[in-house]
Amino acid sequence: MKILVINAGSSSLKYQLYDMTNESVLAKGLVERIGMDSSILTHKPTGKEEVTEVSEILEHNTAIRKVIDMLTHEEHGVLKSVSEIDAVGHRVVHGGESFTDSTLITGEVKSEIRRLFDLAPLHNPPAIMGITAAEKNMPNVPHVAAFDTAFHQSMGEKAYLYPIPKVLYKKHHVRRYGAHGTSHFYVSHIAAEYLNKPLEELKIITCHIGNGASLTAVQGGKSVDTSMGLTPLEGLMMGTRSGDIDPAIVTFVMNKEELSFSEVNSMLNKHSGLLAISGNSSDMRDIENGVHEGQPNETLAFEMYEYRLRKYIGAYAAAMDGVDVIVFTAGVGENSSFVREQVCKNLTYLGVEIDPELNSIRSGDPRRISTPNSKVEVLVIPTNEELVIARDTLRIAQENKK
């Protein structure tokens, strides 16, 4: 069974095609600059040369057609016909309280995703555009939505409710939802497999740190707390997002600077974090270079980032009354040995001890970077959200056939 996984952004569309008989990737790619006359399609068929095509792609429907054309291309394709695609999985960031699992996409499901636009204005609208375009071009196969928030629906009220008037939860569903759920789910399961220990017996802190970043306390295989909240703005300091701040800052700055709601929202989401403190970049690689060169702004940005990340690890160790495993994943977590080193050297009170040589190794496989004497296992696990979506899509498509 062949599954196409789609992750649609406002001006981009990522895709991977899986052969689920062995979970192998047949092809993957990215459409960038959708809405422009110089859009770029990068297509990577397994075992063949990468192909790049520049053309006018003004909307997602055309982007999907281009992807299908490339997947079925006589020279660069991996399929003889689009009819070989058995189901399509779509990444959707916000599922609110409505979805505790991936689900078959219906008219009602799309309506609910639209209703949640306010909670994920940067992510859910593009997801609907991608779903609509894919359904139009592949109408005879099941389409499945996989939600970033679903894994966190296991949190209890003490973790997901905010200490504000409860009527706001009852009327508007204001609560913690979290994000990156497919990643936290995947790496926590891989951690248990790697250590050959029952997931149900482990207390794991998963650190998904990229340009967007979140931590999750996973106890017994379930999310019991997570750092992102009602929206992906809460929690850690990120590339361009502020993370946790005093809520009064919003009204204070709006009044002093005469900013509109949309302007202050843009400030907190797009012009804060590493970018704001360094003044130069939201990319951790640039920040690290600045630290090594002795640049004061980059050094301060890094110190704030590491300090806040370490505080959350400590909080989640307290929340679970201990921690057995800390997992680093995503762009920064997988690739920055410097971030891992600086965080872990300040976790000695937990008994964390990492091996500098193991930490310096770059690999695409799960690996341990802690010493044999460390009381906490520290792992680096490459995330694979697309595979989680493909597995869920296969499961739901097969259930739909019954």
Automatic annotation (TrEMBL):
EC nos: 2.7.2.1
GO molecular function: acetate kinase activity
InterPro entries: Ac/propionate_kinase (IPR004372), Aliphatic_acid_kin_short-chain (IPR000890), Aliphatic_acid_kinase_CS (IPR023865), ATPase_NBD (IPR043129)
Catalytic residues, chain numbering: 148
Record note on cofactor: Mg(2+). Can also accept Mn(2+).
Alphabetically ordered keywords of this record: ATP-binding, Cytoplasm, Kinase, Magnesium, Metal-binding, Nucleotide-binding, Transferase
Subcellular location(s) per record: Cytoplasm
Pfam families cross-referenced by the UniProt entry: Acetate_kinase (PF00871)
Site residues, Transition state stabilizer: 180, 241
Recorded family membership: Belongs to the acetokinase family.
Subunit structure: Homodimer.
Name listed for the protein in its UniProt record: Acetate kinase
Record organism: Paenibacillus turicensis
Gene, per the UniProt record: ackA
